# Entry
Amino acid sequence: MRKHRIGVWLIGARGGVATTTIVGWAALRRGMVEPIGLVSALDPFSRLNPLDWEQLVFAGHEIRKTRLYEEAVQFMQKSRALEPRLLEAVREDLEAVDRRIRLGTVWRAGPAIEKLACPEVPREGLARQILRRLQADFAQFVQTEQVDHLVVVNVASTEPPVDEAVLPSRWEQLDSLLDQADCLLPASSLYAIAALDAGHSYINFTPSLGSRPAAISELARLRGTRHMGCDGKTGETLLKSVLAPMFAQRHLRVLSWVGHNIFGNLDGQILNDPLHKQAKLASKDRLLAEILGYRPQTHISIEYIQSLGDWKTAWDHVHFQGFLGTPMVLQLIWQGCDSLLAAPLVLDLVRFTELAWRRGQTGTLTFLASFFKSPYEVAEHRFDRQYQLLEAWAQQAYTVGSKSS
# Structure
């Protein structure tokens, strides 16, 4: 029986997360590395028969004039997080993907992102024209590569926040805005609409607006496809979602929680712009009050330190009150290679989304909440409970699959 061929279309296809995702996929496909960091490789999920790495074919949209292999070499030299031997072994894979990357859009993507774009990036007059071009790129890729299903994953830089209150809640009304010159939807949402309207899946790994608006979620249901987001939970926020329940369950009152983040990759460069930083800070700061049931004083800073490359360091200072009102402190340091923390999650999300597609599941994939800082339509922020959603979904999928077979 022929296995499905699954396309992965990366928005920001030559950025750090995309590059390391493709390098990781190629290394896994060649059997050069173990699947460390991949949730889908754990026993509860591996028995669902997730797709083989041979089934994937990558492509994407990019706005910068560069090459995947060049980006990977720069990543290796600056961040010292890839082995030269591994990189040379997958060079052919990187070059093959490069030939399938097309020019994206910077429509309302924000000033810092617009500065990165090469002159060749088209500047269409209307959002509708952009949609048609993006969908034509998807269609050509699907036809040329004989793809059975396409998963579009946004791993591009963070856009400035958008006031969702001014957007209509129904797809029919939002659709009409695409023909207006002052359409407020940013690039991430245009990619989402282009994908979902064509029947493809869409995953928003960034804090950008993407498919979050209710009208775009309705579009996914109308077209019988699926989506999820937003903002991959890889580092400091992951720790918060694990540690904050400890304070709540031990009845220790958090007085303040301060987090200071420094890193030097392209994402950090974009977030150095205050307009773009707003969306990231909001995403990182919302879970504490949800978990604790009250809002302690919080402060989050994100600073661009160029010399650090992809290595992100986060210092957290937690001031809490113990028995007899005694003030106490927890301090922790988290240091990790930002893109390599994200890359396996991207591969996981593709695998789980493909399983949902194979099962005929549509709409918002809420069982993927544990992968995101601000999961769509999920109020639960405790990591263990979010992970239980994934386990329950896997158990149901396994039970149904066993009965049908």
